[in-house]
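Retro notes - structure team

What went well: the batch runner handled both jobs without manual restarts.
What didn't: labels got mixed up in the shared folder, which is why I'm recording both outputs here explicitly, each with its sequence directly above its tokens.

Job 1
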Amino acid sequence: MVFSQELEGVAMRLQVKAFVFAAIVAILGAKHAESAQPQFAVTIVSSNDAISAGSGVQKAGSPIFLLVTLTNNSTRTVSVPSFDRDYCTIDVRDEHGKSVPETDEARKTKEAMKAPNARMFRSGVTEELKPHKTSRHTIDVSQYLDVSRPGKYTIQATRQLPEELGPGVVKSNTITVTVTP
């Protein structure tokens, strides 16, 4: 009888330990899944009309738009300044991996900003992005970078992290856009 009670006590303690172990594994697994996702993400897709995702094929001379989605995966509300050049850069490379040149308009704007009395105007728009929410923006890549020649171009966006998440940058996915004659 005493032996049977001891056996029951051991079995009960083993069940409790197994339950605690399973709970710890579940918590650690959930934490790992959370940490595998970046706190802030940038995703890009090509667009033919600046409104909806496109085919990734454009005629030479047509504008090339990017639809940019910013996703706040953190648990904090973050400030997202507008898409001024200080916050986002677009890297466009031709099919040989070479960076494409800036457009004349982009060069003129840069030169004007270097003038002694130059004044930089920013949109001043800052959006509050709540946890696990997204924000969408459109960029006309062809306004700043020369993608007028037929060929395949790879495009990637790099953006500063919101101040609330600390210093650093986040890179988007890389897409391919084909410009046809």
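Job 2
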Amino acid sequence: MNLVQSLQNQQLKDKVPEMNPGDTVRVHSRIVEGDRERVQVFQGTIIRLRRGGVNANFTVRRIASDGIGVERTFLLHSPRVEKVEIVRRAHTRRAQLYYLRGRTGKAARLKGRREEQAQATAPAQE
């Protein structure tokens, strides 16, 4: 392994949730304002997810006040991203959900994904 790859591996975060396009996430990011620092929460739907080691990023879209769409791209392994919480999972058939930009209201909804509960449905052995 060369020097660049070893430096990139040091930057990778240990705990990264399993995310997919369509999932609703809550991203806690650090914002610096002058000499003060605070954590701001951005909640929305993942419309794009680019994997690729230390350069992995994802774009989150939410509808702000007055129906205006706001998109924000986060670097997954950035020190500015505190944590990413998965609020809701959705089933999609596309890798990029750019078509959500043209939809509003109920048309922009995504189907929920059922979580596999193998332990709950398996019969108990006695």
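One thing worth noting from job 2: Residues 13-103 form a domain with the SH3 type barrels. fold (CATH 2.30.30.790).
We'll revisit the folder naming next retro.
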